[in-house]
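Human: If only I could read backbone structure tokens as easily as an amino acid sequence. Take your time, and here it is.
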Amino acid sequence: MNNIIYLDTAASALKPESVIKAEMDFLHESYANAGRGICARASNVDNLVANARARVARFINAKPEQVVFTAGTTDGMNRIAHIINDKVCGTGLKNKIVMVSDLDHHSARLPFELLYDSDSCNIVLCPMDAQYNLMCSNMQYADVFVITAMSNVMGIPQDVAGLVAAARKKNPDVITVVDAAQYVVHSEIDVQKWDCDFMCFSAHKIGADTGLGIMYIKNPERWISPDKFGGGMIAKITGSAIEHNVAFQWEPAPAKFEAGTLPVTQIIGLPAAIDYLVANRPDLNLIKYLYDRFVKNPRIRVITPRDSTLLTFYVPDMHILDFGALVGARGVCLRVGNMCASWIHRVLKLDGTARISVGSMNTMGDVVRAADIIESVVK
């Protein structure tokens, strides 16, 4: 396995030693549940979780109480759709307008598409220009606006602050939801400048462990009721259905959005992943090298621009899965298929593409070897 050239960071990043050590030390020496005890060991875990939450808050320029731990971006985006639909508009999103885009990952758009399918909202598309950038001009009216900060196929950062501001000019009360799963790897996030209502990303994309995500909520107390229920988020129960008097008092945010046991081990490794990422962003000169090489190859069609954070391409007259199998058998790990982003592939009129994405651990030697293998396969 050490001979594998791993060029699939956009799917999931390899883990730095600092993350592995933080989690192993915790499991060996300090493991306990969070929010469930008052002994010294349990209190220490509570402090570690609080410190991790504070580190995330600094990372995105938020307050700790605005940071909710989830199971990942998919979990967060689905929860946001339910929170908005169930808790906000009286009748939910009935007859409300949700603006999405063809850049969206399935997890960002499908929850709202399914609400539309159940007659719970209307869907409109945010326009794109010829370079597949979302357009602030010609912005349509929307009650909810879902923004993909960076497509996992095109790899170009969007003007999130400009898009939010443009949507608010049409409707000051619009609820803005940002999918930052790809963006967070390559660019700093400042939720204050973005002025978004919700934002999500996954820990495993930045070198932390799987099963953990971040959901930022601008005004957590606005969303009075949580969307999940269980231990840790109840302050007091003063009635029950048996007594025909259901009455609950929730804990303040973020606890009221974190029912049940948190993924404590993954959370403990998160600060180390953030520190490593901030000091070691991926070297995008590696992508530029591949772009410059592949655009000269008549057997390869490059989709993404030179300044993209990744390289997306296809090989005419070769099925994308066949291509993936052939380069995979030769030791190159990359992504092939529709990247869970069907809409942009429909726009491109392609069933699937191949994607190369680099991480902090990749070197020029990796991409040179990978390019040699890819060109030997497609010739």
About this structure: DSSP finds twelve helices and 15 strands in the chain. The chain has two domains: 5-14+281-378, 17-278. The first strand starts at residue 5 and ends at 6.
